[in-house]
Design goal:
There is one protein chain. Helices cover 75% and strands 0% of the residues. By secondary structure, it is an all-alpha fold. The chain has one domain: Glycerol uptake facilitator protein, CATH 1.20.1080.10. Helix 5 runs antiparallel to helix 6, helix 5 packs across helix 8 and helix 7 runs antiparallel to helix 8.
Length: 273
Amino acid sequence: MVQIRIAGPRDGMKFQVRCNSTKYAAEFFGTFVLVMGGVGAAVLGGSQIGNVGVALAFGLSLLAMVYTIGPISGCHVNPAVTFGALLSSRIRLEQAVGYMLAQIMGAIVAAALVLFIASGGPNGYNAAAGGLAANGYGVHSPGHYSLLVAFAVESVLTTMFVITVLGATDEKSPAGFAGLAIGLMLTLVHLVGIQVTNTSVNPARSIGPALLVGGWALHQIWLFMVTPLIGAAIAAVIYRGLKGSGGLITTQQAEEALRSEQVERGKQRRPAA
């Protein structure tokens, strides 16, 4: 006798949990790569490659991750991007919280690994003294810029970056080019902001090094948690106004569209009989 089992609500819940877990793992990995590549380049090779090299390290890391984990989680790797997506109705609140936690954990692990590697050098490395590329203002700004300037720069740069992400990943944007636009924009904002704050535009990127540096870095971390969220909110409002509400799609609609596209691609790849 053939037994037929009808899928019930529990099966759908288990699938959703597995799906979300995969996305959270992708966000953890993507943020790990971003911080390992960017902060690692600044700490381990900053004196050789300079600000341009560090900016490229951040941009290239994100560019690679967009094409690697983008199909899995959307490659936010930044709580500010996730917040912008939430305000744009592209992601649900509970999923956004999971994304942010995964991103912060990935950044902490990456920063700890960078510190471990730097400490193994011939001269060692002290996080409190060396700074671990932590973000700062005032005397802890690379160019000694004030709190007010740092606040303005981080808010504006995050707005620019998140608008780029929202636009490049829009359903009407040319397919396959989102990674280039996003990676280049992250490079640009770093070229502008490194001398001011070491460039955050990403709370997770700031939290990772700050926890290991302690002291002044933790005292100033609030700025690099607040301004990216302000910038993301401004970006969501501006982009919604530029685009109009009619074109926005929900996460569920986006996932259904992606599944349909994958099925269609599978049909096209099948050899003719």
